[in-house]
Design a protein that fits this description.
Number of domains: 1
Strand content: 25-35%
CATH topology: Fumarylacetoacetate hydrolase, domain 2
Shape: globular
CATH class: Alpha Beta
Helix content: 10-25%
Structural class: alpha+beta
CATH architecture: Alpha-Beta Complex
Largest sheet: 8 strands, mixed
CATH superfamily: Fumarylacetoacetase-like, C-terminal domain
Length: 204
């Protein structure tokens, strides 16, 4: 099982980090050891002072596929979930300055939070209008909608499958909206997919 993460998929988020808006999906990988499930607490690593939350819609691949045409891409996932791509921003910035890969900042243990339940995509009448968000200590910090994505689910599946064979059970984190920021010990995080609470855990 692979964890594929899409970067810079919302214009406002790209701008808030002073990044260029991409012409095609930017993606990177996280290992399965990054997964944090079951609303277990997230422990801030002792080697970073600036871990940021990035709430994202997650799609689960349901069919084996390679070089998938966009018009068929919707056939390759059946469920939509919610996750958080935790990023050690201080470490990432240092790596970016040196032109080095981001794995230290993105692929560490517990860096890919995954909601306990996925929802059948048929529940959503319009996949271009799925709302989701993140609250920290009862305050909304990120408020997103799939309609604001630069690249749709189908764009992402088609583009990524040019380079990487998609397998059943692979997870694609589809990018985060604006509003990313730091988490601190004692914070209570709640993630919502439409009106349903999918995430509910603590920072320790």
């Amino acid at each position: 099982m692979k964890i594929i993460c899409i970067g810079r998929n919302y214009v406002a988020h790209a701008h808030e980090l002073n990044n260029e808006v991409p012409d095609e999906p930017v993606f990177f990988m996280k290992p399965d050891s990054s997964l944090l499930r079951n609303n277990d607490p997230f422990y801030i690593p002792n080697w970073t002072n600036d871990v940021h939350h990035e709430i994202e819609l997650v799609i689960k691949i349901s069919r084996l596929g390679k070089n998938i045409e966009k018009r068929f891409a919707n056939r390759y996932f059946d469920e939509i979930g919610l996750g958080i791509d935790f990023t050690a921003r201080d470490v990432q910035n240092k790596l970016k300055e040196k032109g080095l890969p981001w794995e230290k900042a993105k692929a560490f243990d517990q860096a890919a939070v995954l909601g306990g339940s996925f929802i059948e995509k048929s529940v959503f009448p319009d996949q271009q209008n799925i709302s989701f968000g993140l609250k920290i200590n009862d305050i909304v910090v990120q408020d997103g909608n799939s309609g604001l994505m630069i690249f749709s689910f189908e764009d992402i599946i088609s583009q990524v499958s040019k380079y990487v064979t998609l397998k059943i059970g692979d997870l694609i984190y589809t990018g985060t909206p604006a509003g990313v920021g730091p988490v601190r010990i004692g914070d209570h995080l709640e993630g919502f997919l439409e009106e349903q609470k999918i995430l509910d855990f603590m920072i320790k």
